[in-house]
Amino acid sequence: MPRKPIDLPFKLEYLSVLDENAELDKKLEPKLTDDELKTLYRYMLKARRADERMLNMQRQGRIGTFPQASGHEAISMGSIFCLEKEDWLVPAYRELAGMLYRGWPLETILLYWNGFEEGAKVPDGINDLPMCVPVASQLLHAAGIGMAMNIQQEKKVVLTFFGDGSSSEGDCHEALNFAAVFNAPVVFICLNNQYAISVPIAKQMKNETVAQRAIAYGMQGIRVDGNDVLAVYTATQEAIARARKGEGPTLIECLTYRFTPHTTADDPKRYRSEDESKKWHLREPLLRFAKFLKNKGIMNDEQKIAIDAEIDAEIKAAVAKAEELAKSEELMDPLRMFDYSFADMPPFLAEQRQELADHIAKHKKHKKEAGEKKAPSPAQI
Amino acid sequence: MTQMNMAKAINLALHEAMTKDKRVIVMGEDVGQDEGVFRITEGLHAKFGDTRVIDTPLAESGIVGTAIGMALYGLKPICEIQFAGFDYYNYHQLESHAARFRNRTRGRLSVPMVMRAPYGAGIRAIEHHSESREAIYAHTPGLKVVIPSGPRNARALLHSAIQDPDPVIYYEPKAVYRLFKEEVPDAMETLPIGQAQVARKGKDITLVSYGASLRPTLEAAELLEEEDGVHAEVIDLLTISPFDAATIVESVSKTGRCVVVHEGPRTCGIGAEIIARINENAFLYLEAPVKRVTGFDCQVPYFSKERAYLPDAERVLEGCRATLSF
């Protein structure tokens, strides 16, 4: 009846391949072709530019409140790049770079943030779930998809995302536990940007890392530099390889910083210093990766400018397309709200649909007769 | 008397309650230094500190579950759930425990807590930020549900909710937070839970509403008088459960016609229960079937279409005219 240490078969590592000064650890450099490296850069940059453009649009009232993803491009791109087409992606809502790479048209994402359900319609041929707002709830879906892959004996994997704040939700713990117990091929990516709106990570949890929770659930875990796309890529590749071999789930904590507000409705000056924010801004993922590509001779200044121009044109086209769709009679039709409640519309809902249709018709007629008499003013906070 | 909006009035009630009673604590996500995403907890953290104004980890079930523990231990916690769309995470704690401890322990233990949450559509928010699901709580035995409609009753009702010996769901119509100001008296006041108010006197038709829907209902009542010469009586429910059937019955017995207005879905909504009470108590006075003007039985659409989902004055007016011409 002794009292002795229990040896647990787990270790926890921190991985950084390309540091903030674009210094490369050559021993750790993943094997990626020049084209693959350029692809990583391209989608990260496109996400950054799109995010900046969306901020302007939000300020102009052309889209609604949205959570910015600037500074988090390395996480979604470095990981989602590792997926095969038949694998599944279960995102949270800051995975813009990876979603664009996966095939989500930017105009679709713009529609989502502009208040159209069509923005959550998964494009045909992609095995993804749409963005998920109630934090951590999607992780259980990912675990379930992974369990289903096991049941169907298919060697696919699921990649799913959550934030440091979400790590406190019960759903997060349940998902990690289910995935571990059922050996589900799930890679959980924690985007630890150190703030849940205003609450810093130190007030969110007592443990030093999110990654160490993997040990408790009996799965592999690692913490990586979330601003280093090569580190994220390396850790995800290893996790996916294990999952495909039937070795179960992995928790990858990507340490980064949200140098933007939580959403466009938030003001970070209320809860943190600008100095802190600036310090982390210098460590952002794109600058170092661009420098790395230049040092490697993959992208010279001229090529960089050309990519910039291409991306600007793509974004411009996507914005135009999204705004055209948002104005179209089809998408603006309020009756669409009833369309997908069930596979078949029950009679009571059909009646309500008709009620709204009649009201709109009458209202239009009424408006015409009364000239341009304005409808009751909208309630705004 | 001071002019203030509803956000300020709720904030005032929190300041007053915390000053008056040391057992009152405020907890939730971003309620401390950030002072709440709608700034409802403004100034509380600075005044009362970390111990009584608690920034919790991001976990609604954790917030409500630990609040239940605190209430059982003798504190009076006020939980803020950031948006009502996220209170399903903690519904289990409310339904399984907050609502049951008194009954389960034959009165030995009770859970005097308040769950505050902004509800309703109309602010161009994303999914899960626009729902109006008060009927779920009204359907839960052991919970009281309160929804203010303006600054003055918001402050008074929050005091009543905090002082109530049982758990109270206090839903805040976020579209009304900063919509208008009204006079709020300097002295603290309460309003009895379970009592409706006649917001507008009339004799021809009774309109029953609450929360954010009260505004379009009152607008419709004005239009009805202006355009049709009909005098509508408007009842502001204020408490959704246990609601004040007597005031409604009295009014309907006088007018013989009734329209219920709420933005939550129609089926099994609050309107259905109001109609049942009218049928039970004033059936012989009715000149027409009671009409419901409500949100539809589909999900609140994303914000490009939310205005079409919400009952506006036009829809209320049409409902009234259909009832009047029955």
Could you describe the 3D structure shown?
The complex is a heterodimer of chains A (381) and B (326). Chain A has helices spanning 34-59, 73-80, 96-102, 106-113, 137-151, 170-181, 201-204, 213-217, 229-244, 274-281, 285-295, 301-327, 329-332, 347-369, and strands at 13-15, 88-90, 158-163, 186-192, 195-196, 199-200, 220-225, 250-255. Chain A has 381 residues and is of the alpha/beta class. Chain A has two domains: 13-327, Thiamin diphosphate (ThDP)-binding fold, Pyr/PP domains (Rossmann fold, 3-Layer(aba) Sandwich); 333-369. The radius of gyration of chain A is 23 Å and the shape is globular. The N and C termini of chain A lie far apart (66 Å). Chain B is an alpha/beta fold. Chain B has two domains: 2-184, Rossmann fold; 197-324, Rossmann fold. Chain B has twelve helices and 14 strands. Chain B has helices at 6-20, 44-52, 60-73, 91-98, 101-104, 134-138, 151-163, 214-228, 245-255, 270-282, 306-309, 313-324, and strands at 2-4, 24-28, 53-55, 76-80, 114-119, 144-146, 168-173, 182-184, 197-200, 205-209, 232-236, 239-241, 258-265, 291-295. Chain B is globular and about 60 Å long. The relative contact order of chain B is 0.12. The chains are: A alpha/beta (381), B alpha/beta (326). The interface between A and B is large, with 55 and 57 residues.
CATH fold label of the largest domain in chain A: Rossmann fold
Structural class of chain B: alpha/beta
Rg of chain A, Cα atoms, Å: 23 Å
The percentage of residues in β strands of chain A lies in 5-15%
